[in-house]
């Protein structure tokens, strides 16, 4: 089975298949890719026109008339033109030229094109029915070069599977070649794709045949309102190149997760590794659409339906939130703390994979929502109909839900000696796709997305959560908090309770989606919502009761607070966890502030190792585009001075050394030597982290500083020369 | 209600609303207060905030509004093309805010965007013409093109006295303050009647970002 597809310069695909312990390469010169065209309202004269227009084009080798479904909801096949293309990799070009020709001759949108923007390797597997799942375990070789060395084109820092490759250029070359020879890897996992070019310059070919290709230069793009960066991509003959800096799935899962999607989507490993979650989802959908004989549209033209303001308003409401006005203890001090506070003896209940389960159980799919063949207002609040035909989206996600549930059960049942790493990695990989599928339905470029699907999922979710809340309350429980798919309950005073697991089982039966009992907290604290953020950013922390924790290693559950954030320095993260312990001992603010004072003193003495102060930040702009002096801008300037370029969408790691300065002197990059740091800057961050812990008790930064000032007068010694 | 008001006539009216996005809701609310029939609001960039529209239109009027949102140039163009199937001579108003915005995005090739944008302006003019319905458009991009294609332009400006709306068919000094109408302008109460005082809103918040 071909695990790697090379596309030769002449457009001929070459399959690399495992062959025993070795590999075998087979060129497939007969293969021709195809794209499809359909005409608005199926007016075949436009297809006649197109057939004539492309006749002289040598890139198009054949034109055939066929009938296909051009949309998921189509009940009849449309007449289409199938254009065979000479070379794999020229399909998009032909698509663009047809658009140009159409533009010259007709009104826009007369023709719709299909199967245009598929990865060539994925397309080849789809068209030929070849399964890209490798026939044996692939051999992997890992090459890494630290960012600074990469920026300086310095190969002497290169490591091969963790060991230095050599001390000078010649030794590195010999070292890499020896490793290639002895391991004969099928997969190269690189810290950056640019290593391919660097080694090629040094005379080393990483492929099974000479040469390499740069598939795409680096670029910066915007997606979901976020700036992203995609580094240059490389291809070598006969081997899969995986760029660790550009593989979401590898970063959030492992090779086992990648392999799973190779099999499920039918997309080769190299291409899956590069995919975003949206890309994986699209591949799964395209493959499934083919099974239904539905073509994949190039540009989505499906529009929103005309809606009343009431429907629009109902549809735009976000997920379920229930935040009671009266929190525990001293919450609500600043009037903006709705739902904050500390609660004792709390049970957490979660709907497992709520949105994807709604898609499957309630048959929510682009072609089932607002169908013409079924009346009724199946979708709560919105009154949309839902078709009884088997939904496309549920068919796509169903196997993922079932597989994941199976792995979870095996992980839970595994005895302690057995490794469950692969199962957990696969479960993680699938989790990312499942959590993204809802948002993706609302994404404007999603090929098979539809806004009404997105709205319907949300509406069902709200109704399900409301049902759960009502049933719990009727059974004697008090809901202290609820958001999206989770509910937290305590025993209502003066009432008899039906056991909470029993209620959960009844809700599960009623709504058809499992309401899982997550565990019991001795206490749980909900932070006040941040004033500025429109989205209800959920921040809370709680201590699991003994024997109830989902994982025995974690004493606390943390969400949204600093210790959980990637951008928080290790020192601040560790200090916040220590503050949590202090909080746990009495749930009173003063002892927590006293612990804070000790961490501040450590900081002020200069005793914190520089590595513990590294801040990791994703940059959204280039240095010159920041209007105000910021630390990120300073870090970018410093990086530029050292020939180490970072682009929007990439991360930069730095330590703040003098926050009063602007420009490159404000920070040091993580890999630079030195011990100095700006204690005031980190002290601010510490206080902020403390405020997150004490927010549920109604203490904010100002109150904390007041307390510290008061105790400093009493015991100056613990505070050094701080402000 | 009053001929002095900027009610909208059949044809395409370009509302040049500069830095005052609230002017759109006010004009729409004012026009619909007097009109029967439904309104089609072909949205781009989330101008169609139900809250903002309702603040300027009473319940009956608000119920007559139908919204469809475009998120790409292709969708916008398809929705424009779908208008003739929806709009009738009894339609009160067609609203197309940010008419050029989605064609200016780089997810549509320039030549195609240009052609779709041209066709959009042509279709809206033809629709207004054929059915004698008012069509109200705003634009952040390509204002000159939109102005040329429109039958008339109404400008809205933020001034010290409040919002000022100028147009060919009504008085030039109609003011609204952000928090309500400008009562110091003497003819104002006569013009609108006191009932409108309650309908005047707080400043309009920008709508939530798109999905
Ligand atoms: Zn149906």
TrEMBL record, chain A:
The record's top EC class is transferase
Q: Which reaction does it catalyse?
A: DNA(n) + a 2'-deoxyribonucleoside 5'-triphosphate = DNA(n+1) + diphosphate
Gly residues compositional bias, start-end = 328-339
Supply the EC number(s): 2.7.7.7
DNA-directed DNA polymerase family B multifunctional domain residues? 344-694
Top-rank lineage group of the source organism: Archaea
For the biological process aspect of GO, one term held by this record is: DNA-templated DNA replication
A Pfam family it matches: DNA_pol_B
Q: Which SUPFAM superfamilies match?
A: DNA/RNA polymerases
Please provide the record's keywords in A-Z order: DNA-binding, DNA-directed DNA polymerase, Nucleotidyltransferase, Transferase
Q: Matching InterPro entries, A to Z?
A: DNA-dir_DNA_pol_B_multi_dom, DNA/RNA_pol_sf, DNA_pol_B_thumb, DNA_pol_palm_dom_sf, DNA_pol_type-B
Could you tell me one molecular function GO term of this UniProt entry? DNA binding
- For region Disordered, the annotated ranges are 320-339
Tell me what this protein is called. Answer: DNA-directed DNA polymerase
Species name: Haloarcula salina
From TrEMBL, chain B:
Among InterPro entries, the record links this protein to:
P-loop_NTPase
Q: What is this protein called?
A: DNA recombination and repair protein Rad51-like C-terminal domain-containing protein
């Amino acid at each position: 089975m071909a695990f790697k597809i090379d596309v030769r310069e002449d457009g001929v695909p070459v399959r690399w298949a495992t062959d025993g312990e070795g590999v075998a390469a087979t060129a497939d010169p007969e293969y021709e890719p195809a794209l499809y065209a359909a005409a608005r309202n199926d007016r075949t004269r436009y297809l006649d026109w197109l057939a004539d227009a492309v006749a002289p084009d040598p890139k198009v080798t054949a034109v055939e008339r066929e009938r296909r479904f051009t949309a998921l909801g189509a009940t009849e096949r449309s007449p289409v033109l199938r254009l065979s293309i000479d070379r794999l990799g020229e399909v998009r070009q032909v698509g663009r030229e047809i658009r140009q020709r159409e533009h010259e001759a007709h009104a826009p949108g007369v023709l719709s094109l299909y199967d245009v923007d598929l990865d060539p390797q994925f397309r080849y597997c789809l068209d030929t029915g070849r399964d890209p799942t490798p026939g044996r375990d692939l051999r992997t070789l890992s090459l890494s070069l630290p960012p600074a060395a990469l920026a300086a084109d310095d190969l002497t820092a290169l490591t091969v599977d963790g060991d230095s490759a050599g001390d000078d250029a010649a030794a590195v070359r010999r070292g890499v070649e020896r490793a290639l020879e002895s391991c004969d890897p099928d997969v190269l996992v690189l810290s950056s794709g640019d290593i391919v070019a660097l080694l090629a310059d040094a005379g080393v070919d990483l492929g099974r045949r000479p040469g390499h290709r740069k598939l795409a230069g680096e670029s910066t793009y915007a997606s979901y309102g976020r700036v992203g960066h995609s580094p240059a991509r490389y291809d070598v003959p006969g081997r899969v190149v995986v760029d660790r800096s550009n593989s979401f799935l590898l970063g959030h899962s492992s090779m086992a997760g990648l392999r799973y999607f190779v099999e499920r989507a039918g997309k080769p490993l190299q291409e899956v590794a590069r995919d975003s979650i949206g890309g994986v989802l699209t591949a799964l959908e395209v493959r499934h659409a083919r099974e239904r004989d539905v073509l994949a549209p190039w540009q989505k033209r499906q529009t929103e339906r005309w809606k009343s303001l009431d429907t629009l308003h109902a549809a735009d409401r976000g997920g379920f939130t229930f935040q009671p006005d009266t929190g525990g203890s001293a919450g609500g001090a600043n009037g903006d703390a709705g739902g904050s506070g500390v609660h004792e003896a709390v049970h957490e209940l979660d709907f497992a994979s709520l949105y994807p389960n709604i898609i499957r159980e309630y048959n929510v799919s682009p072609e089932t929502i607002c169908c013409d063949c079924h009346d009724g207002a199946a979708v709560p609040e919105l009154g949309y109909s839902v078709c009884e035909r088997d939904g496309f989206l549920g068919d796509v996600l169903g196997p993922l839900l079932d597989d994941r549930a199976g792995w979870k059960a095996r992980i839970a049942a595994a005895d302690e000696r057995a490794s469950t790493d692969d199962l957990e990695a696969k479960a993680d990989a699938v989790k990312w796709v499942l959590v993204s599928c809802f948002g993706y339905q609302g994404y404007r470029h999603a090929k098979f997305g539809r806004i009404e699907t997105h709205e319907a999922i949300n509406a069902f979710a709200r109704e399900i959560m409301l049902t759960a809340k009502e049933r719990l309350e009727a059974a004697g429980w008090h809901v202290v908090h609820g958001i999206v798919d989770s509910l937290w309950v305590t025993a209502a005073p003066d009432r008899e309770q039906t056991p909470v697991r029993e209620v959960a089982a009844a809700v599960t039966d009623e709504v058809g989606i499992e309401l899982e009992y997550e565990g019991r907290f001795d206490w749980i604290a909900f932070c006040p919502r941040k004033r500025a953020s429109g989205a209800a950013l959920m921040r809370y922390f709680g201590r699991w009761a003994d024997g109830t924790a989902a994982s025995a290693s974690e004493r606390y559950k943390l969400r949204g607070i600093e210790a959980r954030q990637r951008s928080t320095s290790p020192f601040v993260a560790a200090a916040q966890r220590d503050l949590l312990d202090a909080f746990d001992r009495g749930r009173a603010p003063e002892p927590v502030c006293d612990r804070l004072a000790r961490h501040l003193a450590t900081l002020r003495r200069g005793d914190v190792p520089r590595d513990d102060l590294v801040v990791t930040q994703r940059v959204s702009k280039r240095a010159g585009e920041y209007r105000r002096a910021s630390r990120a801008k300073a870090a970018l300037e410093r990086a530029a001075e050292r020939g180490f370029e970072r682009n929007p969408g990439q991360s930069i790691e730095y330590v703040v050394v003098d926050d009063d300065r602007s420009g490159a002197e404000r920070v040091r990059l993580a890999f630079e030597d030195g011990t100095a740091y700006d204690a005031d800057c980190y002290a601010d961050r510490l206080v902020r982290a403390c405020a997150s812990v004490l927010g549920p008790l109604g203490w904010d930064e100002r109150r904390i500083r007041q307390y510290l000032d008061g105790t400093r007068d009493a015991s100056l010694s613990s505070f050094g020369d701080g402000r | 209600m009053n001929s002095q008001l900027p009610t909208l006539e059949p044809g395409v009216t370009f509302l040049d609303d500069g830095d005052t996005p609230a002017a759109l809701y006010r004009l729409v609310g004012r026009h619909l207060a007097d009109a029967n029939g439904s309104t089609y609001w072909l949205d781009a960039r989330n101008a169609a905030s139900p809250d903002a529209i309702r603040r300027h239109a009473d319940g009956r009027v608000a119920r007559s509004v139908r919204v469809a949102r475009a998120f790409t140039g292709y969708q916008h163009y398809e929705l424009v093309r779908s208008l003739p199937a929806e709009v009738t001579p009894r339609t009160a108003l067609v609203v197309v805010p940010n008419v050029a915005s989605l064609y200016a995005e780089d997810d549509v090739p320039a030549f195609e965007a240009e052609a779709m944008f041209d066709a959009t302006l042509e279709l809206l003019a033809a629709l207004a013409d054929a059915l004698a319905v008012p069509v109200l458009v705003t634009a952040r991009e390509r204002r000159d093109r939109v102005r040329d294609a429109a039958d008339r332009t109404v400008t809205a400006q933020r001034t010290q006295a409040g919002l000022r709306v100028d147009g060919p068919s009504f008085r030039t000094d109609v003011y609204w303050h952000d928090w309500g109408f400008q009562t110091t302008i003497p003819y104002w109460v006569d013009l609108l009647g006191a009932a409108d005082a309650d309908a005047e809103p707080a400043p309009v918040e920008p709508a939530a970002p798109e999905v």
